[in-house]
Design a protein that fits this description.
Blueprint lengths: L7 H8 L35 E3 L5 H8 L5 H10 E4 L2 E5 L5 E4 L1 H11 L6 H4 L1 E2 L7 E2 L5 E9 L1 H9 L4 H26 L4 E8 L4 E10 L2 E6 L2 H4 L3 H4 L11 E5 L14 E2 L9 E6 L10 H32 L4 H25 L2 H19 L2 H7 L2 H21 L7 H16 L12 H10 L7 H18 L7 H5 L4 H11 L5 H9 L2 H5 L4 H8 L1 H33 L12 E6 L3 E3 L2 E3 L2 E3 H10 L10 H4 L10 E6 L11 E3 L4 E9 L17 E5 H11 L3 H9 L4
Parallel strand pairs: 12-20
Antiparallel strand pairs: 1-14, 2-3, 3-4, 4-11, 5-10, 6-10, 7-9, 8-9, 10-11, 13-14, 13-19, 15-16, 17-18, 18-21, 19-20, 20-21
Helix pairs in contact: 6-7, 7-23, 10-11, 10-14, 10-17, 14-23, 15-22, 17-19
Length: 721
Amino acid sequence: MKHFQFILLSVLAASLLLFGCATQQPVKQDASPSYVNLETVKAGTFDNGRMWTFDFAPVDYFAKTYSFNPTKAWFEKARLSALRLPGCTASFVSEDGLVMTNHHCARGSLDRVQKEGEDLGRDGFYAPTLADERKIPNYYIDQLVVMEDVTAEVRQAFDSGANDEERIQKRNAKMAELQQRYAAKFRETSKDSMVFSVVTFYNGGKYSLYGYHRYTDIRMVFAPETDIAFYGGDPDNFTYPRYDIDVSFYRVYDVDGNPLKTQNFFKWSVTGAKEGDAVFVIGNPGTTNRLLTVSQLEFNRDYRYAYQLSLIDNLVAIYGKFLARHPDKKIQYQNTLFGFSNSQKAIGGYLGGYRDPVVMAKKKDFERTFRAAVSARGDLSSRYGTVWDDIASFQPAKSDMYYQVNAYQWRGRSVVFTVAANLVDYALQMKLPENERYPQFKGAGLEAFKGRVFPPTFEDEIQRDMLAYQIGVIAKDLERKNPHISMLLGGQTPAQAAERLHTASILRDKEKVAALVAGNPDDILNSTDPILGFVAKSDNLASDILKRWNDISGKEAAKVQMLGIAMYEVYGTSIPPDANFNLRIADGVIKTYDYNGTIAPPFTTFYGMYDRYYSFGKKDPWSLPAKWQNPPPTFDMSTPVNQVSTNDIIGGNSGSSVININHEVVGLVFDGNMESLPGNIIFDDTKNRTVSVHTAGILEALEDIYKADRIAKELRSSKVQ
C-alpha cells in the first residue's frame, strides 16, 4: 500500500513503495443508489479515522470499547518496539534485534545484498547462521525515542508574521531551529545517531518534536521468493481473500558489530488472534486527506487525482507493452511496473471515494457541523469564521494553473526532457557569479551535478514512448499558452513529432551532452536542438507560473493552519490527525465482511492458496515456487495464512505488526482490501479491512517449507538459539 504529492517526481517515487501492489485498470466505484437522500446523510463518528497518535493516546476510548486499560508503560513498549523504514514500517520481534517487515518493503534491500549470479527476488534468501546475514549498504531503520510538545513555540512564531507569507516563513524557520536545537542538545549527552523532525498535527493545530534513534548496521536475514510474497500478483492486489507470505526479516546490529540487545520487542504469538479479538496496528501511515475542506476535496477529485491517474495509466501502458514485447527484460523492469500498477489501482480507489456522492455528503455534513461550532464561539468566530471561504477562493486559480504547472515539470518522464532541464539549469547558473548560484552549482556540488546531467542508463524503446506521451501532454495543456510549441511539433502531430525527435535530438547522445556541459553556457541556451531550445525558451514561462502557484499555495497553507488551530480548539484529540508517516496506533478487531454477494472469511488457509494454484492451471501469477509445489507431509494445509481486521491503515503501514493487548504479534500488515481505498478521505469499517499475514502461517512456512529452523526458534523463544 502507498502516497504522494502533486509534483511529478513525488508521484513516481511514491508509486514504487508507499502503496501496496495493483492491477492495470482504474477502479470504478458505483454511484450511490438513487433512493439515498443526500440531504439527510450525516457524518459518522469515526469518519476521520482511528489512527491515534502516541502523543494523545485515547486511553478512555480503549477502555470503553475493549475493556482494556493500557498504561503509559504499555504505550511506551509498543512505541519502542515499532520501527520506521524508508517508506514502510517494521518491528523488533526478538531481544536480539530481529526485525520483521514486508517482502515488498525489502525488495530494494535484496537487490543491494545480491551477489553475482544470484537472483534473490526469484529465489529468496536465507542466512543459516548469524555470520551469513548480509549487511545492507546505505540503509537505516529509525526508532521513535523522543516526543515533546512544541506547539506553543511554533504557534507563537506563526502568529508573529505580518501576513500569510511571513507567517509561513516564520513557522518554518522556528521548526528548523527546533530541530537544530534538539540535535545539538542530544549530541552533548549521547554519541548515538539521532534524527529530529517537527511533526505537524491537525494541519497546524498541534506540533511535536520527534527524535528517532537511527540504526545503520542492518543485515538481511530472510526473504521468500517474490512469487509467494506477492502471490496472485496484480489481479489479487488490494483484494481479499489473499494468500501472500509477504514477510522478510532483518537484524539490527549495534555499534560494536553484535546483534542489538533490546528489551522492547513484540513476542510471537504461535496461535494468533481469534475472530472478534481486539488487535492494534502499530505503524507509520503515509498520507490521508480526511481533514481537508470540501473545496479542497473537490479540487483533488477534479484535478489532482484525475491527473495522477491519467499519468499512471500511461506509465502502466508503456511499461506493460514493453515487457509484453520483451519478456526477457522482466528482471529489470517488473518491479517498476508493479509500482506503477499499484499506484494505478490505489489512485483509482481514491477517486472512487471522491466521486461517491454519499462520501462527499458526509464530508459536507462534517464541515457544516464544524463551522457551526466555530460560529457559536465568539473567540473562534472572529478569527476563524471565514477560513473555509478563504480556502475555497484559492481553488479556481489553482484549477486554472494545475495542468500547466504539471506540463512544465520537465523531469521524471522522458530522459531527453530531463537532460534538457538539467542543461538549462546548468547554463543559467553558470552565467551567474559563483556567490549567487545555488549550492549544487558550487565547488564539489557542481562536479556532482555535472555527473548527473546524463543518466547512467536508459531503455531506448521505453524512452521513445515516454517522449510521445510527454509531448502529447505539453501540446494539450500548453496549447495557445506557450508560443514556442511549434519548435517541438514542427507542424506534426505529437506522435509524429516524438518519432522524429527521438531519432534527431542530440540529448540521447552522452558525448554531445558532455560537450555542451564543457562548452559555453550560451550554446545551451541558444541550441537549435528542438527539445533543448523549447525548454530554454520556455524557462521564463515555467518560472512565472510556478511562482504564481507557489504564491497561492503559501496563502492557502496559512489558512489551512488557521483551520487546524480551530479544529483542535473545537475537537481536541477526540478525532485523530491526518496521517503523515509518523507512528500511530490503530485499534480494531478481527472481523469478516460482506463482499461479492457472499461473506469473506476472517482467515484464509494454505488450502486456499493451493486451490488458486490448481484452479488457474499453475499459471502466473498463481504459479508457485519450486519449494512450494510439493510440500512435505508435515506441512499443515489448515494453517491460517492471511486475515482481515477493522484497523485503520493506509500506505506506509506496510510492515506494521498487528498485536494483541499482551504485546504479542498476531499478524503482519501488507495490504488493505478494495473497500479500504476510499480511506484516503473517509474511514468506514463496514467493509474497510486491513489484510495481514497470520503469524501461524509465517511459522509454518519457515519450518516446513524453508527449513529456516534458526529463525523459527528465535521467534518462538524471543532470542537467538
